[in-house]
Description:
alpha+beta
Amino acid sequence: MAVIIIVFQSKVNPAFAQNEIEKEIWQLERQYWNYLERSDTTAYKKLWIYNQINYQSDVINLSDVKKCSYWMNELNEDSSLEFSCALHKKAIEIAENTVIILYDVDKFWTDKQHNIYKSETFSFSHTWIKSENSWLLTDGIAIKNE
């Protein structure tokens, strides 16, 4: 008796896989800003890889994951104002387990009557890596647009 084994190789369409990764990363970016809006440092820090190091925004100091939310207080320091933002995706580069995403963020602070008290725009670059089954933020750069 002869046994024939047929093996089918399943391939995921690379364009489909990249589109799914792009959606997932963009959702993580929205969560990132949602946590900032809510001052949720615990959830915010969970987005970052544990051994992350980064430069702090306007000073030449290294920051690790324990300090990565230092600037959250700046966004929400005036309790009479509400912080919110709008994201504008610019570009994304996907290479295996690494994703670099570039986008602009319009930041707004409004008073209780929803009048804009202050606004500013920054360009962001974030690098995400796949660690086991989740994407984690490893690096971020922000530049204030004039």
